[in-house]
Amino acid sequence: MSIFTKIDNISIDDFHKLLPEHPNVIDVRFPEEYEAGHIPGAINVPYKTIKHFEPKGKTYIMCHSGVNSVKSAKKLTARGYDVVNIVGGMVKWNYEVNTGKEA
Predict the structure, then answer these.
(1) Contact of 72 with 47, CB cutoff 8 Å
(2) What angle do CA 10, 74, 12 make, to 5 degrees?
(3) Which long-range CB contacts under 8 A does 67-72 form with residues at least 24 apart?
(4) How far is 47 from 42, CA to CA, in rounded Å?
(5) What is the DSSP string of 18-42?
(6) Pair 27, 43: CB distance under 8 Å
(7) What are 31-74's pLDDT values in tens digits?
(8) Which of 45, 58, 77, 85 could form a disulfide with 26 if both were Cys (CB 3.0 to 4.6 A apart)?
């Protein structure tokens, strides 16, 4: 993986508009952060386990502030997966959230 690996990005607002389509979204934060509040439909794939994750189709990636989602997107893009970083992370998410372990 190169630091120059190009990744696709989407804004929080543009991603929110996609929610009715039920996009694939992963949250790469620690489980306790995910359980405290996550995007509806997101599954938890902690950053430290991303190397074992195999996305099915286009997948959007969320984290706390955007740093680990960028790193995750670069790793998965380098492996040939179609992934998109959600810019800004949960600190910028001003929409509904789910709590607990379930998506």
Answers:
(1) yes
(2) 15
(3) 68/28, 68/29, 69/28, 70/7, 71/47, 72/26, 72/28, 72/47
(4) 14
(5) HGGG--EEEE-S-HHHHHH-B-TT-
(6) yes
(7) 999 999 999 999 999 999 999 999 999 999 999 999 999 999 99
(8) 45
Q: 3: Cβ–Cβ under 8 A, 6 or more apart, which residues?
A: 74
93-to-1, 2, 31, 86 alpha-carbon distances in Å: 28, 29, 18, 10
Place of tokens 């405290």: 36
SS3 at position 62: strand
Element (H, E) at 9: strand 8-10
Structure tokens at 96: 């509904």
- Please tell me the number of Cα atoms within 13 Å of 33 on its side-chain side: 15
